[in-house]
Amino acid sequence: MAGRPREFDRKQALYKARDVFWQRGFEATSMSDLVDALGIASARIYAAFGSKEALFREAIEVYESGDGAFADAALGDDISARDAIERMLREAVELYTQPDRPLGCMVVSSATNCSADNDGIREWLAEHRRDRTRSIIERLEQAVRSGELPKRTDVMSLGDCYATVLHGLSVQARDGIGKSRLLAMIPMAMAAFDAQTEASK
């Protein structure tokens, strides 16, 4: 009599899949990579998650509700906009350079270039990044309404600046730029905010 298939923890399987996709990217991750990482047969992966793409989308949700939730937490905190943005950038560096995790941001690095067959995944992640840019701009708009920033502040350009820095930190970390160098850049990035408030005095 054949033995029953070994049970597996679906949540733990998602964490393992997250790390594989985070490290290798969506397109470069094969089913054999996932079989090796999750320790279960491909048929069981399909039965549990439906498809590689469905598993990837769930893995992104796990990332964004866990490690990747730092930006929402910083921007939503009851602190000044300047402190919120600085906190967001510092926590990005901390996450993107952790020695026990893949480098960089999963949303930035896992599907920036895909074949035409996977354009849906590429665009889905691009929209996630655009959502982050919008959330930064919205936080700056709040700062204008509260008087922290002058009314004439170009919040869209300033928000685009910080989104570029945030996403650029991921690329730099992925390329092996160390934590201390990335942290040293943050005061320079914050000078763009300070220039707005100084000009109004």
TrEMBL record:
<dbReference type="InterPro" id="IPR001647">
    <property type="entry name" value="HTH_TetR"/>
</dbReference>
<protein>
    <submittedName>
        <fullName>HTH-type transcriptional regulator YcfQ</fullName>
    </submittedName>
</protein>
<keyword id="KW-0238">DNA-binding</keyword>
<dbReference type="InterPro" id="IPR023772">
    <property type="entry name" value="DNA-bd_HTH_TetR-type_CS"/>
</dbReference>
<dbReference type="InterPro" id="IPR011075">
    <property type="entry name" value="TetR_C"/>
</dbReference>
<dbReference type="Pfam" id="PF16925">
    <property type="entry name" value="TetR_C_13"/>
</dbReference>
<dbReference type="InterPro" id="IPR009057">
    <property type="entry name" value="Homeodomain-like_sf"/>
</dbReference>
<keyword id="KW-0805">Transcription regulation</keyword>
<dbReference type="GO" id="GO:0003677">
    <property type="term" value="F:DNA binding"/>
</dbReference>
<feature type="DNA-binding region" description="H-T-H motif">
    <location>
        <begin position="30"/>
        <end position="49"/>
    </location>
</feature>
<dbReference type="Pfam" id="PF00440">
    <property type="entry name" value="TetR_N"/>
</dbReference>
<dbReference type="InterPro" id="IPR036271">
    <property type="entry name" value="Tet_transcr_reg_TetR-rel_C_sf"/>
</dbReference>
<keyword id="KW-0804">Transcription</keyword>
<feature type="domain" description="HTH tetR-type">
    <location>
        <begin position="7"/>
        <end position="67"/>
    </location>
</feature>
